[in-house]
Amino acid sequence: HQGQGLSEGERLFVEKFDDFVDDQADFLGHIRKTQSGKLEALPTFLYGHSFGGLVAALLAERHPQLFNAVVLASPALHLEEELLPPNLRRRSKLFSEYLPKFPVGDDVPMSYNSQLELFNVMDAMSHANPYGMRARLSDEMLSAMDRCMKDAPTKATFPLLIIHGTADKNTPMCGSQLFFDSAHSEDKQFHKYEDL
User: Fold this and answer.
1) Pairwise CA distance, residues 194 & 196, whole Å
2) Residue 85: what pLDDT?
3) Distance CA 26, CA 167 (A)
4) What are the residues facing 134 on neighbouring strands?
5) 131 touches 159 (CB < 8 A)
6) What is the pLDDT of residue 189?
7) Within 13 Å, how many C-alpha atoms sit on residue 93's CB side?
């Protein structure tokens, strides 16, 4: 995603969340165009994990006809208000407009597995902000989560597999359950992994 890994863009910043979705749609269009004649007979699966799970869900809601199935692994689809830092939504909205790069939340570890977190800290492509998520990204992500959930009953018509660990602290399983329950798809499965 722009602003992350080796992609261009300012670290942990985006003007609007749909930029992430547009980038993925453009990439898929580029692959289909450049590989024309080679891919038509093959099924197309969309996979998204965590933050990428939100991007994938929004992309699939926008273009359900492009995918034979969608797989979401611990997608960041919803946050319970009581788990958010106090007034995060209000601070994000306010600062997003006037100080969009201002940090508004606590920095959350990528994993509660100490070895994985160490790998993340040492990863040159990881650009964690020691002061927390920036206001614009926070506001846009929270709004995208709300929109994704609101649209699920009418737009989530694609075959769907969701996998989620019951002990996940970064992306609460309640979001996956809400999306699964709301999705209009006739072909959907939800696999929960205990204590992961």
Assistant:
1) 6
2) 72
3) 35
4) 103
5) no
6) 98
7) 7
